[in-house]
Amino acid sequence: MKPTADLYDEHGDDLQSCTTQFRSFGARTSFEGAVTTVRCHEDNVVLKATLGEPGAGRVLVVDGGGSLAAALMGDLIADLGASNGWEGVVINGAVRDVEALSKINLGVKALGSNPRKSRKEGVGVRDVEVSFGGVTFTPGCHLYSDADGILVTRA
Ligand SMILES: O=C([O-])CC(=O)C(=O)O
């Protein structure tokens, strides 16, 4: 993938740039793909089910409302996503199992970490438009992520 800075220089504000200062947790520090979305709050059932499907090169964008009170993904769910062919996961929320995540061949960006796990009640929605960091993530848009940040095509 081209560096996001070069992509921005080529395409300018045709690309949205996310201002959220994510941390990178996965072994893959640069990733891109078509976006699928989940919105949930401290409950990761829908996220896990989504990463249980064939990823086919997609990136999962999860709007956890910015909550750092519970981890939406740990190493088991990340492993599931990597083995199903997902390119990466961007979580506006927390992860756990940070040491193990750093060895999994998946892009993982999240706000931070918390050893406390999420609820398993299944409250969450798929394929909705989500927004954070000044960016609207529409299902099917294209996302580019590297150490500089995240760029997203406009719908
Ligand atoms: O079970 C969970 O909530 C998340 C987790 O720890 C994992 O993915 O390993």
TrEMBL record:
A single GO BP: regulation of RNA metabolic process
Lineage: superkingdom: Bacteria
Molecular function GO terms recorded: 4-hydroxy-4-methyl-2-oxoglutarate aldolase activity; metal ion binding; oxaloacetate decarboxylase activity; ribonuclease inhibitor activity
Reaction(s) the record says it catalyses: 4-hydroxy-4-methyl-2-oxoglutarate = 2 pyruvate; oxaloacetate + H(+) = pyruvate + CO2
Keyword Isomerase: no
SUPFAM superfamilies: RraA-like (SSF89562)
EC code: 4.1.1.112, 4.1.3.17
Binding-site residues, substrate: 74-77, 96
Alphabetical keyword list: Lyase, Magnesium, Metal-binding
Cofactor(s) named in the record: a divalent metal cation; Mg(2+)
Pfam families per record: RraA-like (PF03737)
EC primary class: lyase
Complex and partners: Homotrimer.
Function (record text): Catalyzes the aldol cleavage of 4-hydroxy-4-methyl-2-oxoglutarate (HMG) into 2 molecules of pyruvate. Also contains a secondary oxaloacetate (OAA) decarboxylase activity due to the common pyruvate enolate transition state formed following C-C bond cleavage in the retro-aldol and decarboxylation reactions.
Protein name, entry field: 4-hydroxy-4-methyl-2-oxoglutarate aldolase
